[in-house]
Amino acid sequence: MPRDPRQLLHDIFGFPAFRGVQEAVVARVMAGQRTLAIMPTGAGKSLCYQLPAVALEGCCVVVSPLIALMHDQLRAAQAVGIRAASLTSVDADWRETQARYRDGDLDLLYVAPERASGEGFRSLLRSAPPALFAIDEAHCVSEWGHDFRPDYRLLRPLLDAFPDVPRLALTATADAHTRTDILHQLGIAADGMIISGFDRPNIRYAVHPRDGFTAQIADLLATQPGPGIIYAQTRAATEKMAASLSAKGRREVRAYHAGLDPAVRSANQAAFIASEDMVMVATVAFGMGIDKPDVRFVAHAGLPKSIEGYYQESGRAGRDGEPAEAHLFWGAEDFARARQRIFELEEARQGGERTRIAALGALVETGGCRRAVLLRHFGEDPPATCGNCDNCLSPPASIDATETARKFLSAVYRTGQSFGVQHIEAVLTGAPNDKVRQRGHDRLSVSGIVSGEEVALLRPVSRALRIRDALETNEHGGLMLGPHARPILRGEETVSLVLPPRRTRRRTARDGAANPSDDPLFDALRACRRELAQEAGVPPYVIFHDSTLREMAQYRPDSLSALGTISGVGTRKLEAYGDAFLAILRRFA
């Protein structure tokens, strides 16, 4: 007889109620139905299969794309008393795990898609049919998704071999086309899709043109004392930036990329997971396997590959629901490189890639709400303003820069479409430049036609033209007219330019701290958590989240039963850690 999900929610996870669509998803799973759940990062997707795994008879098989992600979720499940294990290439106890599965001694079994699709694993499942298939990061099954993995396409035969076993696909990032493909690839009916919405209201979005990036990122870190991720675009850039930030006084900064020695890479990741203030500078390969809830900021040092990728990567901030920030620093050259990569793809995929680049252009170029741009991309109808992005908090002005844009494009054309931005600016402003004079460009009709306040518009106009594909860059960095230059030159299209907004007060380090009110009890509870985590060999957040500690500090429970009413304190954790935290609370009573 299945156990009551609501009672398990409180007893195991310590939560008084379901969040969002969790209850609807769990109800479908408990009824044996096939479901696709679209839930934003931080909305509690893992609970949607962890809870049924305990409630149902048998074991839930979870297919997950990364070993690090599996082991992270494994620790969290075991901490609340769920009998969980994984079968991966680095797990030496695979024989014991298989025996536990056959003996009915597991609630959860995590596997990679490569193993799940093999005949050996299917034979294991025939010995004891599972209670549920959960396919995490389900967008990986779709060629239309931003992170397609061919091995996910091999899962369907496994699922169909057990037609009576419910299947639950979960993802945070899937546009309408990708969602339809997931349903088809995994054999889930359209009426089995549940969408909770994509909004992450606790994340503050901000987009900045790169302008002295080292100083920009140092300014950001000065206001962010908590854990953070900075995504760089190359391996070399991660190491260079990590060294630079360390030299500027950030206490702990490390680098992560696929070229590092595996032992170093693994050690850096483990240190980040356990830290309460480390900054990781990484390529985008880092983070998908991290279930760290207390990341306070994510910064992109360059343009992400797609809106879906940006949403997922920025969504690694604030998974605990606490305030977090996502910063995107971009340059016009990012768009040029992205368009050049299109021609490396097979022709059938080029159109989709152009659409992705255009969507990113709309995000960085908008003078309106950033969140609204993101949410509309995923098919939602958001309010015009969100109150928690840079443009909503400090609305920028915009001007019609069409005439300046036409001058810029004309100068590119008349100089032969082979010179960079600085040369074009020198021609347009009539600067006394030897290079300009030697090539006779001081005698062109466009020489010296820009002056006064219009000079300040040239650089942002050049960025806007490259975003719109009106300017392209050749292999030597020279500017050429792009396919969308002609309608601007003819006056058929306008170029509106968003001006930098007025500066507002930046958050101070205390604003972004875990303990902004400097409560000594909270600091003591955090120290207790840190000590218990070190003893148990787990990250501090596996013991309790900061939000749980803040609630303890606010309500000051004076008994185990009262402590058990705090959100996030389930039966297992109450038994394991209750006395230690009560001792701290009583000391401050």
What does this structure look like?
This protein is α/β, with parallel strands linked by helices. The chain has 4 domains: 5-195, Rossmann fold; 203-393, Rossmann fold, CATH 3.40.50; 398-498, Winged helix-like DNA-binding domain superfamily/Winged helix DNA-binding domain (Arc Repressor Mutant, subunit A, Orthogonal Bundle); 520-587, Orthogonal Bundle (DNA polymerase, domain 1). The protein has 27 helices and 17 strands. It is globular, with a radius of gyration of 27 Å.
Short description:
It comes from Sphingobium algorifonticola. The chain is of the alpha/beta class and 589 residues long.
CATH topology of the largest domain: Rossmann fold
* pLDDT averaged over residues: 88
End-to-end gap: 44 Å
Which stretches are low in confidence, meaning pLDDT under 50 for 5 or more residues running?
Answer: none
